[in-house]
Amino acid sequence: MMIDLLRHPRLSWLARAGLIAALAAFTFTAFAQYRQTSPLIELPDFVVEMTEEANVIPELPDFESYGDTETRKEAFFSYLTVYVETENQRIAETRTSLLPMWEVVRRGQRLSDVEYAEMLDIAEEYRLDAAELSDRQVLAELIKRVDVIPTSLVLAQAANESAWGMSRFAREGNNIFGQWCYDEGCGLVPNRRRENATHEVRAFSSVQASVSAYFRNLNTNRSYEDMREMRAQMRAQSRSLDSMVLARGLTRYSERGMAYVHELQDIIRINRLSALDKS
After folding, report:
1. Confidence of residue 45 (pLDDT cuts 50, 70, 90)
2. Which residues pair with 180 in a beta bridge?
3. Calpha distance 213→228 (Å, rounded)
4. Which residue, of 54, 119, 228, 274, has the fewest CB within 10 Å?
5. Burial profile 150-163: b = 16 or more Cβ within 10 angstroms, e = fewer
6. What whole-number distance in Å separates Cα of residue 40 and Cα of residue 42?
């Protein structure tokens, strides 16, 4: 009844606001009484994640409306570069806080309590189980994981995986990088999914969420250890990160293997994306 009343077209905004406040107060009171008489039921993590991303509002521009291919490409790269640089900046700041800790343990010294707590927080964010590892081992692995990904490589994968922002999964689910999920309702069901397959193409609440998940995937998933090792070697040799080389560490991102890597390298080369890389 309350919901029907709220939908009434002649209800003024002031009256509607009052009804919403009353409904909120009633709900809060009822929930508080329930907690006093019943144990609090916590949802599993995957349910919470699905709930957070269930209300997907597509954010991508209509790239298909650009009739000219070159104009569409330019618009696509321009749009996504802002998100990529924002995420790389966040990662770079975290890395900057890690490097002094790494120098401390390399000299055989102990981390302060504050440094130790920060290290554990970063390890948790980057899906590293630190329980059975020494501080030196934890930091050595984090130095490999907590690092930027060249903008050119990210944009090449985005273009490949999203069909230049025009795929169904990009348009309807803000999924720029073709990432899968396995809980029913977590995303969009592929039209050509095999009969016994259960995966869905994940739906994201925002483009930024999609970009962040992609970075987390490449920086933590064991499938991309080779890419992270290549990156670490470039850092150790004080070389700039080379996206053409790092692409070779992504053979497991696609069933196409090295053919997929060559596609990424072609996109980087043809569109001269390396000019966007800063480190």
Report:
1. very low
2. 201
3. 16
4. 54
5. bbbbbbbbbbbbbe
6. 6
Tokens in use for 204? 């994201």
Three-state DSSP string of 56-96: CCCCCCCHHHCCCHHHHHHHHHHHHHHHHHHHHHHHHHHHH
CB burial of 66-86 (b: ≥16 within 10 Å; e: otherwise) equals beeeeebbebbbebbbebbee
The residues, any chain, with a CB within 8 Å of residue 263's CB and separated by 6 or more, are 160, 256
Nearest 5°: the CA angle 212, 217, 219 is 95
d(CA 263, CA 247): 10
Calculate the alpha carbon distances from 47 to 28, 31, 175, 186, 215 in Å: 22, 20, 19, 9, 22
Contacts for 93 with CB less than 8 Å, ≥ 6 apart: none
Strand order in the sheet with 187-188: 180-181, 200-202, 187-188
Length of the chain: 279
The per-residue pLDDT of the chain, averaged, comes to 81
User: Nearest Cα to 57, choosing from 207, 199, 184, 214?
Assistant: 207
pLDDT tens for each residue of 74-86: 999 999 999 999 9
- Span 58-109, pLDDT tens digits: 788 999 999 899 999 999 999 999 999 999 999 999 999 999 999 999 999 9
Q: Tell how far CA 188 is from the center of its chain.
A: 17
